[in-house]
Amino acid sequence: MTIQLDHFIVPTHHQIASARQLAELLGVAWEKTSIGPFSPVYLNDGLTLDFLETDEPFPVHHYCFRVGQAEFDAILGRIQAAGIPYRSTVRGPDDMQISTQFGGNSFYWNEPDGHQWELLTVSYARPPA
Predict the structure, then answer these.
(1) Nearest CA to 47 among 84, 22, 71, 72?
(2) CA 93 to chain centre
(3) In this structure, are 47 and 66 located in the same domain?
């Protein structure tokens, strides 16, 4: 069997609001609660982000989502409609631009707890097969 990542816990101070916002922006399903104390966001048939509320401090995490161009355009449209600032670089000002630096389209935005989301159409994490 191939190793697959099944779920990842996303620490948050606003569990339901954070899970709902990400799910609505990405156009995927989510639930207020499921198994245990989590608010899961179902990214695809095999990967779930489980939002878990905590009062404790936590580090800011970076999550990158690779999508096709049609999904990219739809998600960008939802982010723009919601008035969420975004940027073309991993760090820097919210320039409301997309990047084409790696042969596709990409951009970044932060959610209220500080976690950084990245959306791209072409992965630069590993060389092409």
Answers:
(1) 22
(2) 19
(3) no
pLDDT of residue 128 exceeding 80, the answer is no
Per the structure, how many domains does the chain have? 2
Q: Which residue reads 């500080």 in tokens?
A: 114
The 10s digit of each residue's pLDDT in 22-41 is 999 999 999 988 778 999 99
> Where do we find the tokens 């996303």?
10
Q: Which pTM value belongs to this model?
A: 0.92
69: CATH: 3.10.180.10
Among 37, 54, 71, where does a domain finish?
54
3-state helix, strand, coil in the chain (%, to 5): 20, 25, 55
- Owning domain of residue 77: 61-129
Give the relative orientation of helices 15-26 and 69-81 as an angle to the nearest 10 degrees. Answer: 130
